[in-house]
Amino acid sequence: MKHDMPYKLILTENELATQWYNVRADMSKKPAPLLNPATRKPVTLDELSKVFCTELAKQELDDTTAYIDIPGEIIDFYRMYRPSPLVRAYFLEKALDTPAHIYYKFEGNNTSGSHKLNSAIAQAYYAKKQGLQGVTTETGAGQWGTALSMACSYFHLACDVFMVKCSYEQKPFRREVMRTFGASVTPSPSDTTNAGRDILKRFPGTSGSLGCAISEAVESAVTRPGYRYVLGSVLSQVLLHQSIIGIETQLALQKYGVKADIIIGCAGGGSNLGGLISPFIGEQLRGEANYRFIAVEPASCPSLTRGTYAYDFCDTGRVCPLSKMYTLGCGFIPSANHAGGLRYHGMSSTVSELYDQGLIEARSVEQSEVFKAARDFARVEGTLPAPESSHAIKVAIDEAIKCKESGEAKNIVFGLTGTGYFDMMAYQRFNDGTMSDYIPTDAEIAKSLADLPR
Ligand SMILES: *Cc1c(COP(=O)(O)O)cnc(C)c1O
Fold first, then answer.
1. Does domain 20-69+115-229 match CATH 3.30.360.10?
2. Closest Cα to atom 5 of ligand 1
3. CB atoms near residue 421 (< 10 Å)
């Protein structure tokens, strides 16, 4: 095979970013502010600091500082697994017989197996620096809890994870990784919080929900001195930390003289997509370059393609601030999809605003075609992708096939957010041919949207 470019567009450790990029600074129309659900006024730093670490609350509210220094201790941690590789998918291009050049930024090269570690380490650092004893959080499928437990163990912080009970029982492997890193993992609902006890009384034997786990995690943080609550996606601070993905991608492409045409990411709460595209969106907002950006979401949870742009609760438990976002309604319960990390009713306010301004396109894809793309990718590229990441693979393949039809040699870049090692039950369903797709009806979406806060 003729290689006009190395298989990996390598950056050296010396080229590690020293600043995160805050895309909100370059947006002339900013994302709408978070609102306090009680007063319906923009949340203040004081209010946010009761739930989140103060420095993180500041980052959340800062929509004017473009570059924020990454503290040295976080850079030291990043050195263990970053810069992450930007890989040229030669074998996939060959299999597709496409003139397109395909590149993927692989974030699965760490024990937690996904990009979530990029923000977990930042959040744990600021909690430690504030002198806190620990942090609490919820986890559904377990990727976020795993990343956070690694970050907390590094900074000697307590880490209390409320894990949705059905995942706790059905996905013991991630639970055990968390415990190995020293986290305490509690199946939710539990009898350790008022929220949990209340749910247990009302629904004895329930297998839990993410909304309930969030309520428990928030209560457990705000009722104990020395604790704060942390969240792995959706928030602007998380997009800020994840901008490391885009900064490295931009630098590697520059270093090798490649101009991206299309940039693709999967979208759950929007943090990996937002992080990947941020520096490129910045170039576009400043009039320096033009790109096509595509957000890919599951057809079973289509917040951008079928949701409404409105203020809604970030959580099913209705305890977190109101955020203006593309949402399916915080009461929307997506069908059991194997891409657990994409089962979220809303979308980051920044990604939502960029989408509303027409800067990002969105596409929804069905689960079985996503797994076909995952299998085809794994067989030629040798990496077993996470089901979430495979949404981006599916659309990258679609775009590469369009290039074959039109004869255009476009440069397609996509985010490969994680590995699929802990998703083998999903692959088993796919291999057995028993995977099904559930797409919500318009009536179901309208029903949950009718409950939006006024
Ligand atoms: C959590 C997760 C996602 C989705 O989260 P975003 O905030 O939308 O990035 C995607 N891929 C993997 C592997 C994940 O763990």
1. no
2. 268
3. 12
